[in-house]
Amino acid sequence: MLSIEKNANLKPYNTFGLEVKANQLAICPDHESLLEIITYLHKNPTSYLILGGGSNLLFSKDFDGIIIHPTIKGIKVIKEDPKHIWIEAGAGENWDDLVAFCVNHNFYGLENLSYIPGNVGASPVQNIGAYGVEVKDCIEEVNGIYIEDATPFTMDNDECMFDYRYSIFKNELKNKVIITSVVYKLDKAGELNLSYGPVKDELFKKDERDLKTLRETIIEIRKSKLPEPSEIGNAGSFFKNPVVTKSQFDSLQKDFPQIPNYILSEDLIKIPAGWLIETSGWKGKSFGGAAVHEKQALVLINQNKAKAQDIINLANNIITDINNRFGITLEPEVNII
Ligand code: FAD
Ligand code: EPU
Hints:
Low-confidence stretches: none
Strand content: 25-35%
CATH class of the largest domain: Alpha Beta
Structural class: alpha+beta
Number of domains: 3
Order of helices and strands: EEHEEEEEHEEEEEHHEEHEEHEEEHE
Mean pLDDT: 97
Distance between the termini: 27 Å
Largest sheet: 5 strands, antiparallel
Shape: globular
Number of helices: 7
Strand order of the largest sheet: 6-7-12-10-11
Bound molecules: flavin-adenine dinucleotide, uridine-diphosphate-2(N-acetylglucosaminyl) butyric acid
């Protein structure tokens, strides 16, 4: 059943922990309640935002409109063959609960994405990724509703146009659809993905080399670098890692021979933004109540009752400085609302 809270406090709904409000917060636990809120929007056009766990958002001010918060639950096996299993999860399931479910059942595929905050419904939006895996590697299809005419849709993996921190839901379909569930195709047996060096090093210090131990290892690595949103407000990496051409990279490497890099293709190279920011002396620096995290320079934190503008000013100062030093324009990963 749809429930609407007026003049809602959004502090529990944004991991930056900012004190912001919305005119209305619509909690939608099922399809019917989503259709109800869509019908209401058709009759009373107003601004709206679809909100999952609020872990990739920065509210720049109070939200003048309706926040649509799908809380559709359910994790179920919908199909299997001798090698694979297809799991459908509701948009409102907590992401890491889904990963834990899969690991506990020995289904391979999502384990490297352990402990990423947020909900299932947002997992395809920016194609969440960590430690050598992107969720696109396991997504079979995405189900949802078009807001314009309230019709349902199912999109297969190709139609979602997944790329690094990108999908059709971040671009053409941004705020035009509500994702209601995602179907993941997982393996019943498989190899652990240890392509991300530090994961292999840490796992090999342990006695077991199974899915559960890999999940524990990933969680330990994440806890050693990334702040817990319940303790220090943040939204993970504030910027995307920039991708440059080979010729741009070659000229950067002449000036900065130690610059880390990942080769994506013959002509494209990804550079860790955390290195650019740390090398430029920003680690630990603060602006108002906002700061650059001491252990991971790509993460901006709400250090001391930050205002949204503190975080935005800090981000803008970093963008300008990195541009001046390296000729690279950092792009936010976080959605600024
Ligand atoms: P929200 O922040 O609520 O929303 C994000 C975007 O998705 C918004 O544009 C929103 O409108 C849209 N959206 C949400 N739900 C729906 C829906 N049902 N239908 C349509 N649109 C929707 N990300 C990574 O990729 N890798 C990481 O390793 C990682 N680490 C993180 C670590 C920390 C400590 C934190 C705080 C964040 C991290 N993130 C990471 C970012 C974040 O967790 C992910 O982007 C996550 O998928 C966001 O989920 P959410 O439910 O909180 O989405
Ligand atoms: N680095 C530094 N200083 C720092 C941070 C990083 O020099 O303060 C350099 C180091 O060379 C390090 C490299 O950057 O080896 C990579 O760092 P890390 O492994 O911490 O990963 P990242 O590139 O900073 C990306 C994702 C994270 C994801 C990790 C692990 C993006 C924007 N971020 O960070 O995702 O968890 O890899 O795979 O791609 C997120 O999207 O919110 C997020 C946390």
